Amino acid sequence: MNVLVLNCGSSSLKAAIIDDVTGERRGRVRVERIGEPEAALFDADGPAVPCAAKDHGEALAAALPVLERARGGAPIDGVGHRVVHGGARFSQPTRVDESVLEAIAALTPLAPLHNPANLAGIIAALRAFPDVPHVAVFDTAFHATLPPRARSYAIDLELAKKHGVRRYGFHGTSHAFVAARAAAFLGAKPGDLRLISCHLGNGASVCAIEFGRSVETSMGMTPLEGLVMGTRSGDIDVGAALHVARAEGLDLDGLDALLNKKSGLAGLSGVGNDMRDIEDRAAAGDERARLAIHVFCHRVRKYIGAYAAVLGAVDAILFTGGIGQNSAVVRHKIAHNLQLFGATLDEDENRSARASAARPVIRISTDTSRTHLLAVATDEEHAIAGETAKLVARRDEVAQRSIPIAVSARHIHLRKETVEQLFGPGHELTPLKELSQPGQFACEEVLEIVGPKRSIAGVRVLGPVRPADQVEVSRTDEFFLGLDAPVRDSGDVRGTPGVTLVGPKGSVTLKEGVICARRHIHMAPEDAARFGVADGDVVEVAVDSSGRDLTFGDVLVRVSPKYRLEMHVDTDEANAAELVPKHAGLLELTQGTATPLRRVLR
Ligand code: AMP
Fold first, then answer.
1. Catalytic residue among 20, 43, 77, 139, which?
2. What would the DSSP string read from start to end of 15-54?
3. Shortest CA distance to 453 belongs to which of 492, 507, 497, 392?
4. N or C terminus of the chain: which is more exposed, having fewer CB within 10 Å?
5. Closest Cα to atom 4, ligand 1: which residue?
6. Candidates 1.10.3080.10, 3.30.420.40, 3.40.50.2000, 3.40.50.261; correct CATH number of 2-138?
7. Does residue 544 carry a catalytic annotation?
């Protein structure tokens, strides 16, 4: 697939059309200094071209002609968006819809610079490519598996919960990608290996990956914690930071800037944040540059030791990111003398190793080394393209097999005579809203249901009128009312309990008519042929929701040319599957879909 990958920073936009399998770029463009008079566009690595981009929408508009030219008419199959913070909600790449946009916006307090920029990029791209699936790929998602012991800070638990203070981890897309690359190189699956992945670039983090799952990582609630980075301090005694702030009269923003922008390699070396420059200065005898490299490498080594203890055994240590892929000096300082877990650096290999697209994985340990040391080229954009393509392909497949779900709230069907007893002689039901099944409508009329124990007011009447009165409630409603109604197909009310209905002009006590509606699927004959079922079949259905995936048994199939494909569940069942309502109304379409698994009964 051709995937447009967008990576938006606070004042930048990077876009590329990428082949999801090979990672090959068809076009690559970036716009920098968005919102400033100096905004400029770069076509691949070409020279800066001034472009008046006031926001991310205008930046994308400026980039599009370059991408259009590059793709030469080939279709774009999906758009993948890098999103920095997915909070506790997103544990995997997610198709963008309105609720996802809202959730990314709601996570802004956790990533005040990044998430709004990511969101602006997504909105601009949704406008430019409205007919293509958009997928958000989160830097934090891979670390959703961190166990509570690794993700919790030892502060007041209530306070932590209130403000979402916990360790989320970042660089997840990169750690997962290089783990997969390394596993393939070693002829194994990520699920067979215990790995320590060191992403050493301008931002830097270490991740302990136990059989494919992130179990520890050095970045925390924000990307400030952990390793020494280009301009970020990484771990620091908070007491020391407070002391400096007090002594220098810094406010919170001043402290933020000090630790995020003026520390790390730049703060230590005084040379800037570029490791190449620092290495050059260190080689020329600059003591601050040497110290910067020593502190940087010592911190990584310390984490490797700690993560080896977390994992219990280590199959391979991976070096990636601009520094990890290229710097022999840094890798040597980190990985020499690791006899503790049988890792022996091959100094010659290490000296020349430069992991890149051309040679993505290079072994830098000796043949006899028990733990492999590997330089691995990361490519986060390729990873985003891959994740996007996977989701697009899955969605296409699921769309073929899936059934929209509607949640049926408690409701009442009435005979014409009952309508008149409750609402007055000659009264006709007043349609309020059409329902998805043709001819059915929700009415303006509502009634009170009075049970032996309690009553429920405001229960909606559905039209048109029917040959028998019928009250459909959930199991929870039954307990509340004090009734014991059976699970029945709609229309089958014989021998069911009665109830009193109270309307504005009178009340009626039904002798029978209360049921708990059986889960069912409406479908047209074409759908039935596609799913291989017939009217009256009872099937099992897997519900794929944004909450809890669940399999429902005993789902009745109802086939008629007048039906539209839809599964109806009641509110209890929807709650059990944590289905999220998409549309308000009597029948709420949800974000979940159902897939028939097998036919059980006929
Ligand atoms: P990244 O953020 O992954 O692009 O990495 C950027 C960092 O990698 C910068 O500090 C670069 O100086 C560093 N880097 C790139 N190439 C080399 C190299 N050959 N030797 C040392 N550091 C390098």
1. 139
2. EEEEETTT--EEEEEEEESTTSTT-EEEETT--EEE---S
3. 497
4. C
5. 322
6. 3.30.420.40
7. no
Q: How high is the pLDDT of residue 598?
A: 55
Ligand 1 pocket, residues with Cβ under 6 angstroms: 201-202, 230, 274-276, 279, 321-323, 326-327
307-329 average pLDDT score = 97
508 φ/ψ angles, rounded to the nearest 5 degrees: -135, 130
Residue with tokens 């669940």: 550
Torsion of CA 206, 212, 216, 218, to 10 degrees: 20
CA of 265 to the centre of ligand 1 (A): 12
E strands, 108-203, where?
Answer: 134-138, 194-200
Instruction: Report d(CA 543, CA 557) in Å as an integer.
Output: 15
Structure tokens at 39: 């905004």
Convert the pLDDT of each residue in 49-80 to its tens digit: 999 899 999 999 999 999 988 888 889 999 99
Options 3.40.1160.10, 2.60.40.10, 3.30.420.40, 3.40.640.10; CATH for 172-383 is 3.30.420.40
**What is the Å distance from ligand 1's center to 204 Cα?**
11
Over the stretch 360-404, which tens digit does the pLDDT of each residue have? 999 999 999 999 999 999 999 999 999 999 999 877 666 666 787
d(CA 170, CA 163): 19
Domain span(s) for CATH 3.30.420.40 in the chain: 2-138, 172-383
